[in-house]
Amino acid sequence: MTSPHYDLVLALDPRFPGGTSTAISRELEALLAAGVSLAVVRVNAPVFPTDQPDHPGLAARIAEATIPVLTPGQVASCDLLVAHNPMAFELGLPPQPRITARRRIIIAHHVPVDGLGGLFYDPVRVQRRLADAFGGEFHWVPISEGCRRNLMDSGAPVPVVDRFWPPLVDVAKWGRPRDGLLGPIPVIGRHSRPDRLKWPSRIEDLRAMYPEAPDVRVRLLGYEGAIAREVGPTPSNWETLPFGAEPVDRFLSEIDFFVYQHHDRFVETFGLTIAEAMASGAVAILTPNLRVNFADAALFADPPDMPAIVRRLAADPAAFARQSAIGWDWVRTQCGPERYLEAVRALAADPTAPGAPSVTMVTETEGGRRKRRRHGRRTMLRQAGRLVRAVPFGGQVLDRLRGRG
Fold first, then answer.
1. What is the CATH number of the domain that holds 204?
2. What is the 3-state secondary structure (H, E, C) of 207-273?
3. Of the candidates 335, 366, 385, which is a domain's last residue?
4. Do residues 159 and 198 both lie within one domain?
5. What is the SS3 assignment for 360?
6. pLDDT tens digits, residue range 366-390?
């Protein structure tokens, strides 16, 4: 019996909460619409507890499209084998299907090094685990320029492809550029999981970004838990909603400015929520370290200076409209379905063909070797924004790995 051949086989763990599974779900939709033949390898990564639920959107997409799910020992071939998220593979895997692939890549949905220099995961160990599970070398594809730089600076000797795997945001489904404010006073907002690391390190920065003032309104989706307790009494002009209380597209359609800074320890690998906000027509005002990912699509300032930008653009509808259009068009060109499918075609092509993406081998540094020796089996992992130790693996650690959303 002839084994099946697919254009793409995706190795993934559908239990990742948040951005990883959301991104994969959108990719499946675009690939199916383009007529790409697909199969999925379900990776039950030991980084999750056994009762971790599947991401509902991704699980539904696979089921509704009746995408084949390859089982351990099954034989198949493909043009491109895509492994999603390095953190799914670092701790090793049980036996997998036997897949012959012309090219193998791993999508770096997370950076390996956090904002304080610690390891989220060890790329060298991930590379070894992938080779054990599927055979052959995997090339690393970052999802942003910031992710590429982080990989290169990690000193881990892995091959990094000189192009990106853009998170997919179809602007036609989110909104359009806006001509000005939605109402008489500007509405400042943001949304994210209620993870403390998604919010500014210092409460005074948060209060500066979202001032208690009569000339602005503040709407926060995902404001609950630790950050709400630290802030204390809710300012009078704030409207706060728990995570998932309102559809994201509707929430974004009701704010003028997406104002965002994260914790010093956290590294935003891309910023899918930011791209979605710009696709809705909102103007993004971000912490300066995100300029590497968004260039001129957003405006950048430290927290005390963010409200001044809000007030300036609120008083100048033409300037607001220009920035809204710049951000919206950036998402259209950098994250649209056409750009995504172009990346897939390029990475699936014969690597010796003219115009094929090149690969840079990261030069291992002494610092990188020291870092891996220092962490050893105690590699720091982040899941759903929680910083945990991979070993020992049980008890409260498992509880902290449970994701939301």
1. 3.40.50.2000
2. HHHCCCCCCCEEEEECCCCHHHHHHCCCCCCEEEECCCCCCHHHHHCCCCEEEECCCCCCCCCCCHH
3. 335
4. no
5. strand
6. 455 544 444 433 333 333 333 333 3
